[in-house]
Amino acid sequence: MNLLPVEDAITAILKRVPEPIAETVELAVAAGRVLLQPVIATHDQPPFNASAMDGYAMRAADVVDGHTLKLIGTSQAGAGFPGSVGEGEAVRIFTGAPVPAGADTVIMQEEAVADGGFVSFTVPARLGHSVRPLGNDFAKGQVLVEAGVRLAPMQLAVAAAANAATLQVAKRPCVSLLATGDELVLPGSVVGTDQIVASNSSGLRPLLIPYAETVIDHGIARDTRDELRSKLDEVFASQPDIVITTGGASVGDHDIVRDILLELGVTLDFWKINMRPGKPLMFGTRGKTLVFGLPGNPVSAMVTALVFIRPALRQWLGYPEPMLWRLPLAAPTPPNSARRHFMRAQLVHTPTGPELLPIPQTDSGHTSSLARADMLIVQPGGDPGQQAGAIVEALPLDYF
Ligand SMILES: Nc1nc2c(c(=O)[nH]1)N[C@H]1C(S)=C(S)[C@@H](COP(=O)(O)OP(=O)(O)OC[C@H]3O[C@@H](n4cnc5c(N)ncnc54)[C@H](O)[C@@H]3O)O[C@H]1N2
Ligand code: MOO
C-alpha cells in the first residue's frame, strides 16, 4: 500500500491554503491575532525630554557644593514649565513632566533640600541623569512590531503607545467539525451497551479555536450514507473555510466518509499517510473549502490535527511554522516500524535541564496517555531506537 510521507502531505495541504487576508481590528480585541501590517511609530517617544523622577530640574554645571539654586516654577505631567532655566535656577519637576528648556539634569527630591524658594542638593549632579531624552524609547518611522507576530500584551501596549487605535491582522478561517459513528453519544449522555462517548470534537475545538474565527461543532452523523450526506450537505451549505470530519476514514464497510465526500464534489488530494497514529488521514478541497477527513481513533484525530491542520491554519494567518524542539531523552525509545511515529512524551525537569520522557503507549485509542503528554517525539520511520541522553526532535502539544 502506498503511504504518503508526512512532508509531502504537509506540502500538498499548504499549497491549498490561500494567501493571508488583512482585516482591521480595534486594539481592544487584537490580543492573540497575527499582525499582517507592521506597527510603525508615528511620533517620537517620549515626545519631549521627560523627567524620570519627582525632584528638581537644573543645569548640572550649576550644582556646586554649598550653592543653592533659585526655584522659578513647576513642571508637571501634562503641564510643563513654559519658560527656560537659566544659570543658578531650578524648576520643581514631577515624573513624566517635560524637562524645561535650559535644564539638562534632574535630581530626585530625596537628594534635595528645598527651603523658602531655594533648593540645594546632597549629591553631585550627573549630567543628563533622570532625564529620558526625546525619542529614547522609539523614533518616528521605527518598526515597533513586525508583521507575522502574534499579538501578546507587550506588543499591544507598544502599539497603543505608538497611538495605533486599530491594527491590520490576518482574517481567521471559519472551521466546521463533524464526528461520524453509529456508536457515538455526546458527553454527558447515558451510555448504552456498545456505545462510546464522542471526544474528538471536544479536543479539536479548543485546539483550533486560537487560529479560527469560529469552530462550529455540527455534532455526530450516523454511519449511513443518507445521514452522512445530509449532515455534510448542511455543513458545506454554511460555507466554512475548513471542514473536518472524524471517523469512518479507514477501509471497513462502515467507513463511508471518503465515498460521500467524493459524491458531494470533494476533490481528494491524498488519503493515507506514512505515520502512526493517523494513517488513514484524507485531505481534499471542495471549491475554496479545505476538507480534512481525520481518523476516528481519538489519539489519531488529535495528532493529525496537530501535524497537518495546525500548520495549515498558521499559514492561513501568515504565522511562520516554529522549528521542532530538540531535547535529550530521559529514557530510551524502542525501535520504530517504517511509519514515522509521533510518540507521546512528558517534559520532565532535571537538574541539567528539560528532558523528554517517552510514554510507552502506542494505542491510538488511548486518550489518557495523550492527556499526560506534553510533547510528541518525532521518531523517524525505521529508527532503531535511541538511548537515554540522545537528542531527539519533538513537537510541543500546547503552544500557538
Ligand atoms: N483493516 C484495516 N483496519 C484498520 C486500518 C487499516 O489500515 N486496515 N487502519 C486502522 C487505523 S490506523 C485507524 S487510525 C483506524 C481509523 O478508523 P476510522 O477513521 O474509520 O475510525 P472509526 O472506525 O470510525 O473509529 C475508530 C475508533 O475511534 C472511535 N471514535 C470514532 N470517532 C470518535 C469520536 N468522535 N470520539 C471518540 N472516539 C471516536 C471509534 O469508536 C473507534 O473505536 O482504523 C483502523 N482500522
Ligand atoms: O493511524 Mo491509526 O491511528 O495508527 O490507529
Automatic annotation (TrEMBL):
Cofactor: Mg(2+)
Occurrences of domain MoaB/Mog (ranges): 176-315
Entry keyword annotation includes Transmembrane: no
Gene Ontology biological-process annotations: Mo-molybdopterin cofactor biosynthetic process
EC number(s) reported in the record: 2.10.1.1
Lineage: Bacteria, Pseudomonadati, Pseudomonadota, Alphaproteobacteria, Hyphomicrobiales
NCBIfam families named among the record's database cross-references: Glp_gephyrin (NF045515)
Domain of life: Bacteria
Pfam families linked to this entry: MoCF_biosynth, MoeA_C, MoeA_N
The protein's annotated pathway: Cofactor biosynthesis; molybdopterin biosynthesis
UniProt xrefs under InterPro entries: MoaB/Mog-like_dom_sf, MoaB/Mog_dom, MoCF_biosynth_CS, MoeA-like, MoeA_C_domain_IV, MoeA_C_domain_IV_sf, MoeA_linker/N, MoeA_linker/N_sf
Keywords: Magnesium, Metal-binding, Molybdenum, Molybdenum cofactor biosynthesis, Transferase
GO terms under cellular component: cytosol
Catalysed reactions listed for this entry: adenylyl-molybdopterin + molybdate = Mo-molybdopterin + AMP + H(+)
Single GO molecular function: molybdopterin molybdotransferase activity
PROSITE patterns for this protein: MOCF_BIOSYNTHESIS_2
Protein family per UniProt: Belongs to the MoeA family.
Transmembrane segments: none
Species: Devosia psychrophila
Protein name: Molybdopterin molybdenumtransferase
Biological role stated in the UniProt entry: Catalyzes the insertion of molybdate into adenylated molybdopterin with the concomitant release of AMP.
